[in-house]
Amino acid sequence: MSAADVFRQQFGTDPEGLWAAPGRVNLIGEHTDYNEGYVLPFALPQRTVAAVGPAPAGEWTVCSTFADEPVSFGVTEPGAVTGWAGYVAGIVWSLQDAGFDVPGARIAIDSDVPLGSGLSSSAALESSVLTALIDLGGLDVPLERRPALAQRAENVYVGAPTGILDQSASIRCQEGRALFLDCRTYEIDQIPFDLAAEGLAILVINSNAPHQHVDGEYGARRKSCEEAAQILGVPALRDVTLDDLEDALGKLDDEVMRRRVRHIVTEDQRVLDTVELLRAGRTRDIGPLLTASHASMRDDFEITVPQVDIAVEAALAAGAYGARMTGGGFGGCVLALIDADRADQTVATVDAAYAKAAFTAPTSWIATAGPGATRI
């Protein structure tokens, strides 16, 4: 059943329109966003669709294909609406808090972005609803301002301490491009990313080891980075360069904090190096950077789990140019840069490794760079 079907079933009329926003894969640049560094995501073809129609002022009702009952709310404050509907209420609150006159709305949601997989289903939900409400109300919200509004909904209303990466990707990505984003200035550059033209592909492997962003581990990593920046006397870890790294590590007494800093500083440089290689048309050469990123997340940031480590190892054994976990960690997905004609062989190798380890079988597919949020 589509979002439009659910809307008709719940509200007895056609929606005024349909708006869609994608999930994302982060090619490289993990946990660098809240450290004001660099990221390089691209949007997935999988997306969340919001069927939306008007409602009386100050009234919002949301329903979906994955929830039994609709949720209604009026003018709201952070935390008042919980569960999946809290992301929708958070968008209403964020727009109102920014001074916008948000139109009342009836909203039906459908999504094929896998939940809990590290592909940012929450940002896809936020971005589709945000785009719909802006269009429905004729609100003057520049595109470059929208990711921060969606991020504020997640940070303040829902209570998840995420950075700006996910919402930026879901809103600002373009088809056939990777989004090079400076998370301090919000400046972007659309980097050509047409893998098929080079006989390459990105294989996404859902480890089926689900993760949660609203948990102590993600928050602990962010707190450790912020404390380290304070000790080092810099606004954010983005300000520590690779040349400065050894000196910076020498100023930190805590070994865990040193590992966290090392990951962020080296990961920022890996993003910059990846962008330069892609600009030069040397896509295969980014493989070692992807693999080094995974090793850093595993050893220094300590956010991987056995399922994703095995998926990376198996993909590399099958001939991938590089592979890494993508997303916040503690489960989720792996991406592997492969020759397009080796997809089946790579999937078979990963599946066999999972079976040997007695893990729940993974789910795999080829990802292509799609467009950001839009009316459809």
Automatic annotation (TrEMBL):
GO molecular function, one term: metal ion binding
InterPro entries with a match to the protein in the record: Galactokinase, Galactokinase_CS, GalKase_N, GHMP_kinase_C_dom, GHMP_kinase_C_sf, GHMP_kinase_N_dom, GHMP_knse_ATP-bd_CS, Mevalonate/galactokinase
Record's keyword terms, sorted: ATP-binding, Carbohydrate metabolism, Cytoplasm, Galactose metabolism, Kinase, Magnesium, Metal-binding, Nucleotide-binding, Transferase
PANTHER family the record matches: GALACTOKINASE-RELATED (PTHR10457:SF7), MEVALONATE KINASE/GALACTOKINASE (PTHR10457)
Transferase as UniProt keyword: yes
Domain GHMP kinase C-terminal: 275-355
Gene3D superfamilies: 3.30.230.10, GHMP kinase, C-terminal domain
GO cellular component, one term: cytosol
This enzyme's EC code(s): 2.7.1.6
Family matches, as Pfam families: GalKase_gal_bdg, GHMP_kinases_C, GHMP_kinases_N
GO BP annotations, alphabetical order: galactose metabolic process
Name under which the protein is recorded: Galactokinase
Family recorded in the similarity comment: Belongs to the GHMP kinase family. GalK subfamily.
Organism of origin: Paractinoplanes tereljensis
GHMP kinase N-terminal domain ranges (all copies): 87-171
All copies of domain Galactokinase N-terminal, residue ranges: 7-54
Source superkingdom: Bacteria
